[in-house]
Amino acid sequence: MNRLENKNVRQVALELLIRIEKEGAFSHLLIHQAIDRNNIKTVDENLLTEIVYGTIENKLTLDFYLQPFIQKQKKITDWVLILLRMSVYQLVYLDKIPVYAVINEAVHIAKVKGHRGIASFVNGVLRNVERQGVRNTSEIKNPINRLAIETSHPLWLVQLWVDAYGFEITEQICKTNKMKKPMTVRANRLKGTREEVLDVLNREDIKATLSEIVDQAIQVEQGNVLKSNVMKDGYITVQDVSSMLAANFLQVEPEMSVLDTCSAPGGKATYMAEAMDNTGTVYSYDLHKNKIKLIENHAKRLGLTNIQVQDLDARKLQTIYEKGTFDRILVDAPCTGFGVIRSKPDITYHKSLEDIKRLQTIQLNILQEVAPLLKKDGKLVYSTCTINPLENEEVVQQFLEYNPTFTVDDTFLLEINHPRYNKAKITDFGMQIFPQTFNSDGFFITRLIHK
User: Fold this and answer.
1) H or E stretch including 161?
2) How far apart are CA 185 and CA 169, in angstroms?
3) Backbone phi, then psi, for 6, in 5-degree steps?
């Protein structure tokens, strides 16, 4: 990225939004890079983050607001539309910023990046928005269309969820995706009990409470845990409770041989390594070589020595391991990621139905490849951080049809039919966690056994 010292925070925001739109770059990575590489003050960091995330999270709603004011314009350059989006976001959603400041900055950027005619157009549109206000979504009569626009989710995705789960659950998914997700951390049981770790957090003025969902989970209410000594000294790991559940349901035990097929950044691998009391071995693989270091650093900070890390496509693991090698296997498969929209809102606009079908094939191929590596009576967890039957129940169903020596673990089905999971969708093939289930990431989890 070019250095941006001479540009104000809104110019930086516009450049980041253009890259996210055009290149499919991840917003959270670009924001961190822009803050690290440029002299952006703390107060401007917050505004930069607010504008970028807010514009992405409300993209379809903002386009709905803008449409009456730009419909007579034959063609609008992409960057101009993005500038208008981020400006309307500030006018509608950020009441602490003066209207004149938003408009003046937008006009200035339009002059610098374009020419006087573009600046005049931007000024005219924003002045009309200021005078007339934006239209109400209540004028959209179709409830599914209205939900898509109000919550800024692509219509095809909302329709997919409605077909799979019904309108009420879909509405809860979409609305929860608009809310801030709480931060959860995992207590490192090698350092002490969860209660002892909570005491250490409290001594660093970090307010937190014990989670009722996972035994090792702590929910952070207040304080910067990322820069705390508790984090630096390996007492905790930031991990969503849904992700913890996926590792927890594998039921690893000390001295076991465990395979983690798609491991980066290593949250589940380190969860299992801790649960094994730093004994046995977690064989941790990931397709992307540049992510291997993340797992290694993760393990080192936590004081774990029972993780072996290597880069390899999970579909090639039979070339180095014999059948029946592992006591436990975790397949946290590559997926569309529709369960983590709250953390990565740009995912919503960069995926399609074709992506789902392509990933479904990859997911099934990985399962087919690694399943023979499981010992008889061993357990295999298949999980994704997405929400749709095509990548979840359908993949499991197809796998079981091809592999009659495997079945969904009956004891797992008993475990998930617990009152604490009653907001999740439970089927014969596993558990679909929605964002509203535990106010966490959306996840699918099932456990298979080799009969």
Assistant:
1) helix 155-165
2) 27
3) -90, 10
Give the closest residue to 276 by CA, choosing from 233, 328, 210, 322: 328
The alpha carbon of residue 190 and the mean position of all alpha carbons in its chain are separated, in whole angstroms, by 28
Length of the chain: 451
Helix (H), strand (E) at residue 260? strand 257-260
For the record, the structure tokens of 449 come out as: 């056994």
Buried b or exposed e, range 221-246, using 16+ CB within 10 angstroms? eebebeebebbeebbbbebbbbbbbb
Instruction: Give pLDDT tens digits for 2-49.
Output: 333 446 889 989 999 998 888 876 677 788 777 777 667 777 888 999
The answer to whether position 1 is within a domain reads no
Do 225 and 131 fall within a single domain?
no
Catalytic site includes residue 385 = yes
| Tens-digit pLDDT profile for residues 101-134 | 999 999 999 999 999 999 999 999 999 999 999 9
What pLDDT score was predicted for residue 3?
39
Tell me the C-alpha distance between 28 and 344, whole Å. 7
For 163, the domain range is: 138-176
4 falls within a domain: no
pLDDT digits (tens, 9 = 90+) for 137-182: 999 999 999 999 999 999 999 999 999 999 999 999 999 999 999 9
* From 174, 262, 335, 385, the catalytic residue: 385
Tell whether 168 and 45 lie within a shared domain: no
Residue range 53-69: average pLDDT? 96
Task: Kindly state whether residues 160 and 275 are assigned to the same domain.
Answer: no
Same domain, 108 and 231: no
Which residue has 């992307």 as its token pair?
A: 288
Give dist(CA 304, CA 259) in Å, integer: 16
